[in-house]
Amino acid sequence: MSSRIAVRIAPKLKASKSVLTMTPKAINRLKDLHSKYQETNQTKYLKIGIQGKGCSGSAYTMSWISDPNKFDEKVVQDGITVYVDSKALLTLIGTEMDYFEGKLASQFIFNNPNVKAACGCGESFMV
Which GO terms describe its cellular component (predicted)? Predict the structure, then answer.
């Protein structure tokens, strides 16, 4: 008795959503911050990640790096390069990074469609 096995080659997969997009306000703020590092002749990139902390379990992290890790995702938009930590990729897919500047505070804001709940102060979230 013989049996046949059909093998189908899958077409190349295309990403349907970007890992991270940045608003014009965020781009402008990152350009300002990046220019300060260029004055000191240091090449630095912003790296965004997730850390376990806070009331709801996770919080965003942002740090300046010289060399990205091997599996970090490179996001380039309008001349700005940002890296996303490989451990945070699934959590951040489809996230929009914005920048808010008010009289009392200024901060980067992440509009993440994957968030299911957040704490009252807005510092942490749950996926």
Answer: mitochondrion
Tell me the C-alpha distance between 17 and 6, whole Å.
31
- In CATH terms, 20-36+43-126 corresponds, of 2.60.300.12, 3.40.50.150, 1.20.120.1200, 1.10.10.10, to 2.60.300.12
Q: What is the tens place of the pLDDT at every residue in 85-112?
A: 988 888 888 888 889 888 888 888 888 8
Retrieve residue 32's tokens: 């300002």
Which residues are within 8 A (CB) of 72 and not within 5 positions of it... i.e. 6 or more apart? 47, 83, 84, 85, 86
Res 89: pLDDT: 85
- The residue ranges of every structural domain in the chain are 20-36+43-126
